[in-house]
Design goal:
The complex is a heterodimer of chains A (256) and B (274). Chain A has 256 residues and is of the alpha/beta class. Chain A folds into two domains: 166 residues, P-loop containing nucleotide triphosphate hydrolases (Rossmann fold, 3-Layer(aba) Sandwich), CATH 3.40.50.300; 59 residues, no CATH class. Chain A contains seven helices and ten strands. In chain A, the strands form two sheets. A six-stranded mixed beta sheet of chain A has the order 6-7-8-3-9-10, sandwiched between helices. Chain A is globular, with a radius of gyration of 19 Å. By secondary structure, chain B is an all-alpha fold. Chain B has one domain: MetI-like (MetI-like fold). In chain B, helix 3 packs parallel to helix 6. In chain B, 30% of the residues are buried. The chains are: A alpha/beta (256), B mainly alpha (274). Chains A and B meet through strand 6, helix 2 and helix 4 of A and helix 7 and helix 8 of B. The structure holds adenosine-5'-triphosphate (ATP) and magnesium ion. The site of adenosine-5'-triphosphate (ATP) has 11 residues of chain A, from strand 2 and helix 1.
Chain lengths: 256, 274
């Protein structure tokens, strides 16, 4: 069981305070959705979790130990774009994670090993509904299929945390609904901890078990960067009344 | 009638339209040469096409009386060998240095200033130094081309590596890749086609340096021949040699482009090419 504990986390870029005093603890298996106005620091928060940015102050603990400050295979990620490798076809994209593990020198496997990885990758591709596009290159896939591929690619490493940065933001509404179902099913099967950023509040409420809203609760009109955003709402999804929803919606529409 | 800006030539039309300037130019030449020869039949500046054909057939299809070699063939082989070796060396160096400096920040900090400085040295200015160090043989000619095009290739490769979306490099790390694996499985395959494109762009300079080096010190080669026969004002040899060099350069560019498209099929064909 892996729990994440963030204590008084701050992130500043020079004089620009992006995140201030974020404290939260997350149990293993939670599905957390993050919303907030554009530019308020959601991606920055995810980057901290992923280890590609370091916090200016505060602690991030995974099971009581400091989180590693560089990406590793325990934390999978799906970005809005550029998550898959254009020079590998669908199945090669998924196999890659296992090949890194089994072949430190070449990052490439042959023979029996390769066949085994292939079987594993095929099973995952079937799971995300890409079994008919195994030999296509990403440029031949639709946006939704590319995101399915990105998810499949992350899943082969069995990460304990999956980070998603507006993964469906560029997709049509109909395809989005399919993707919601897919991600929910996968979450239920694997009980993986998910952090998902979304611009769509409905998506935030529909998916997930817990909604985090990022916002600045203090604003200095003369120095907009004086204060950072923090978590202003932390609500278990499902028991929200309409007024809260309206409040959150208006906070999201605010300009930075 | 559609507007001019909306009218496109079909395949045949496109080729025809492209040929028109060449045919016009050739016609102009024949006319001018004819006029000049009518005034002075010993004019050397614009030899008649028949004179050129004679000269070419002598250079290309008859063994030289002195050496027994087919001169145009031996010139071509000599030049292409130098060019080929130099381009391969440059490509290899820039691939290694460009990728490493592009992806490893500490190496970039240490090596980039040197590369930038070297790229600012005019290569021809150090040609005498090369001749002094490496002698008048093949090495200094190859070195001149290498020095001339490698800094550009390194910088281009480094920029291309840095242009790769950060997301991809991060993604690879979340899949468990170490630095070496990121380089050989993510960066190298995506950079190779871009290196080929950069090579195509630097072929022009490579030819320039080749011909310059051959003009100054050589005993065979396309550049050597042109500068040799210049003494006798042999336009009937110079002109076809220039055309021949142009054809060779065009063929190399074409082959590199085809190579890139066929070895790296995952590339999207850019608009307007194909
Ligand atoms: N590397 C950086 N250097 C300096 N400032 C940065 C850097 N990365 C982000 N910022 C700043 O941090 C703030 C938050 O950016 P972030 O990308 O986290 O916002 P976001 O909530 O993800 O926005 P969006 O919803 O538009 O994706 C922005 O004001 C941005 O200018
Ligand atoms: Mg963002």
């Amino acid at each position: 069981m892996e729990s994440i504990e963030l204590k008084h986390l701050w992130k500043e870029y020079g004089n620009n305070i992006v995140l201030e005093d974020i404290s939260i603890s997350v149990k293993s298996g939670e599905f957390i959705t993050l919303v907030g106005a554009s530019g308020c620091g959601k991606t920055t928060f995810l980057k901290l979790l992923l280890g590609i940015e370091t916090a200016s102050r505060g602690q991030m603990l995974l099971d009581g130990k400091p989180l590693k400050d560089e990406p590793d295979k325990h934390r999978g990620i799906v970005f809005q774009r550029y998550s898959v490798f254009p020079h590998l076809n669908v199945i090669e994209n998924v196999m890659l994670g296992e090949e890194f593990e089994l072949s430190p020198l070449l990052g490439r496997t042959f023979g029996k090993k390769r066949r085994e990885i292939r079987q594993h990758a095929l099973a995952i591709l079937k799971r995300v509904g890409l079994e008919d596009s195994v030999h296509k290159y990403p440029s031949e896939l639709s946006g939704g299929m590319q995101q399915r591929l990105a998810i499949a690619q992350a899943l082969i490493k069995n990460p304990s945390i999956l980070l998603l940065d507006e993964p469906f933001g560029a997709l049509d509404p109909g395809i989005r609904a399919d993707m919601h179902k897919l991600i929910l099913d996968i979450w239920e099967e694997t009980k993986i901890t998910i952090f998902m950023i979304t611009h769509d509040l409905k998506e935030g409420f529909h998916l997930g078990t817990r909604l985090l809203v990022f916002d600045k609760y203090r604003i200095d009109p003369h120095q907009p960067n004086r204060y950072g955003a923090t978590i202003t709402y932390d609500i278990p999804v499902g028991n929200t009344d309409n007024r809260t929803l309206t409040e959150i919606t208006s906070s999201m529409l605010k300009e930075e | 009638m559609k507007r001019l800006i909306n009218q496109y030539p079909n395949r045949k039309g496109k080729i025809l339209l492209g040929l028109i300037p060449f045919i016009l130019f050739l016609g102009l030449y024949v006319f001018a040469s004819h006029e000049r020869l009518a005034v002075n039949e010993n004019d050397k500046l614009m030899p008649a096409l028949t004179t050129i054909v004679d000269a070419v057939s002598k250079m290309a299809f008859e063994p030289s009386k002195r050496t027994g070699e087919y001169l145009m063939l031996s010139d071509t082989t000599a030049s292409l060998t130098r060019l080929g070796i130099a381009v391969c060396i440059s490509a290899l160096i820039s691939l290694i240095v460009g990728i490493l400096t592009g992806i490893i920040p500490k190496l970039r900090a240490s090596i980039s200033p040197v590369v930038t400085t070297v790229s600012l040295i005019p290569p021809l200015a150090i040609l005498p130094i090369l001749f002094i160090i490496f002698g008048l043989g093949e090495v200094s000619k190859i070195m001149l081309i290498v020095l001339g095009i490698t800094p550009f290739l390194i910088r281009d490769t480094q920029l291309r590596v840095m242009e790769l979306p950060e997301e991809m490099i991060i993604k690879a790390q979340t899949l468990g890749a170490n630095s070496w694996q990121v380089i050989i499985r993510v960066i190298l395959p995506q950079i190779l086609p871009k290196l080929i494109d950069a090579l195509r762009l630097s072929l022009g300079s490579a030819w320039l340096f080749l011909i310059a080096a051959e003009a100054i010190s050589s005993t065979e080669g396309l550049g050597y021949r042109i500068f040799l026969v210049r003494r006798y004002l042999s336009m009937d040899i110079i002109l076809p040699y220039v055309v021949w060099i142009t054809i060779l350069a065009f063929a190399m560019d074409y082959l590199l482009r085809k190579l890139s498209r066929s070895v790296f099929p995952w590339q999207l064909v850019p608009k307007g090419e194909g």
